[in-house]
Specification:
- With about 270 residues, the protein is of the alpha/beta class.
- The chain has two domains: about 5-100, Response regulator (Rossmann fold, 3-Layer(aba) Sandwich); about 115-270, Rossmann fold (3-Layer(aba) Sandwich).
- The chain is built from twelve helices and eight strands.
- The chain has helices at about 15-25, 45-55, 70-80, 90-100, 115-130, 135-140, 155-165, 180-190, 200-215, 220-225, 225-245, 255-270, and strands spanning about 5-10, 35-40, 60-65, 85, 145-150, 170-175, 195-200, 245-250.
- The strands form two sheets. Strands 2-1-3-4 form a four-stranded parallel sheet, sandwiched between helices. Strands 6-5-7-8 form a four-stranded parallel sheet, sandwiched between helices.
- Strand 3, helix 3 (about 70-80) and strand 4 (about 85) form a beta-alpha-beta unit.
- Helix 5 (about 115-130) packs antiparallel against helix 7 (about 155-165) and helix 9 crosses helix 11 (about 225-245).
């Protein structure tokens, strides 16, 4: 049997940064069996010592810790116990320091602060959750971007993900044989950017079939029928072209990738 590599993540805050980095790298090594264990809020030498002594047969420790005392302790334990230790933030912090010689504060969790940006993110999340599919003119004019698309093109989850990044995203569904409300064209006229979302008929059919089964409505055949979905997508493309909307195909994109593409479009519109 192949060895399962033990990877330990240590953070002096929530661990989101180091976890995201480790997961991103691990996804590139699909044939390598790994077990990743995360320990957040390592802010004292006593806790660090306790964790390190209890690690056992670990192969790699990746850490995002700003305290020099704790990082020195981890590096010393690396030499003593024979595991590899890697500071995720170290090279970046050194590069910042080299710019003009300033020293880092050494305070953990500084990125998690209640400031204006944080409050704007909270407001954007409330906006996305409280007004899903809301189509009033006032609501749409408050948006930073409007996502438009047929059913199951991930409009709602993308709006919520963007909200976590402080972007107020509204969503307008394209429903067969129904006109888009005037509030949408009013928002466009007011300068609110809109982006069209599409997906392949096959993908939409699969997602809609699962949705119907979950709702217990398998009799709504047209909703998941590929031919009918193709007609919806044709009408959607014509709608996007009519209003001059940029279009993102979400067929093979994750929510994160779709959100990144949306941010890119918004930046281009501002330049």
């Amino acid at each position: 049997m192949s060895k399962t590599y033990q990877i330990v993540l240590l953070s002096d805050a929530t661990g989101e940064t180091v976890t995201a980095a480790a997961d991103a790298v691990a996804s590139q090594f699909v044939e390598m069996p790994v077990e990743i264990t995360m320990y957040p809020f390592v802010r004292s030498a006593a806790r660090a010592n306790s964790l390190i002594e209890g690690l056992g047969n670990v192969d790699l420790v990746i850490y995002t810790i700003v305290s020099t005392g704790i990082t020195n302790l981890i590096e010393a334990a690396s030499t003593k116990h024979g595991f590899k230790a890697l500071s995720l933030l170290g090279p970046v912090m050194q590069a910042f320091e080299d710019l003009d010689g300033l020293q880092p504060t050494g305070q953990p969790g500084k990125q998690y602060k209640v400031d204006r940006d944080y409050l704007e993110r909270v407001s954007a999340i409330d906006y996305a959750i409280s007004h899903d599919d809301g189509l009033s003119a006032e609501y749409l004019r408050q948006a930073d971007v409007i996502l438009v698309g047929v059913s199951r093109t991930s409009k709602t989850p993308t709006c919520i993900y963007l909200a976590y990044q402080g972007i107020r995203a509204a969503n307008v569904p394209l429903v067969p044989d129904q006109d888009v409300p005037e509030s949408f064209t009013e928002a466009l006229a007011a300068g609110v950017p809109a982006i069209g979302l599409i997906a392949s008929p096959t993908r939409l059919s699969q997602v809609r079939q699962h949705r119907l089964k979950a709702l217990g409505n398998p009799e709504l055949i047209a909703y998941a029928e590929t031919k009918d979905i193709q007609n919806e997508l044709t009408a959607a493309r014509l709608f996007f072209e009519k209003h001059g909307l940029p279009v993102i195909d979400v067929t093979r994109r994750s929510i994160e990738e779709t959100a990144a593409a949306i941010r890119g479009i918004l930046v281009e519109k501002k330049t």
